[in-house]
Specification:
Length: 113
């Protein structure tokens, strides 16, 4: 059974920072690339950042240089550090193991201008 629990969202002014966390089931976390997605109102869900088991990272062009994904194997947690936030970053953010169809409940991020 896959458990995913995102947290850390909130309301922040443009230019501010947030750090999102996603606690995953140990078995899922240990063997998966972990992805962060986001879905803005009336838009399709998009892949924001990924991190492999080995720690290789990849980012969408829209967040490159502003967001940093990391993982802590001891805590079965993947993080998304978001800096220099923009209103267009407003969305519900979800983490997902690459090889699973399971989604968490997401965490809402609102960036005010």
């Amino acid at each position: 059974q896959v458990h995913l629990a995102e947290s850390g969202g909130g309301l922040v002014q443009a230019g501010g920072s947030l750090r999102l966390s996603c606690l995953a089931s140990p078995g899922v976390f240990r063997y998966n690339t972990m992805d962060w997605y986001r879905q803005a109102p009336e838009k399709q869900r998009e892949l924001v950042a990924s991190i492999t088991i080995a720690g290789r990272t990849n980012y969408a062009d829209s967040v490159k240089g502003r967001f940093t994904i990391s993982r802590d194997s001891g805590k079965n947690t993947v993080y998304l550090q978001m800096n220099s936030l923009k209103p267009e970053d407003t969305a519900v953010y979800y983490c997902k193991p690459r090889l699973s169809d399971q989604w968490g409940q997401g965490t809402q991020v609102i960036v005010s201008s």
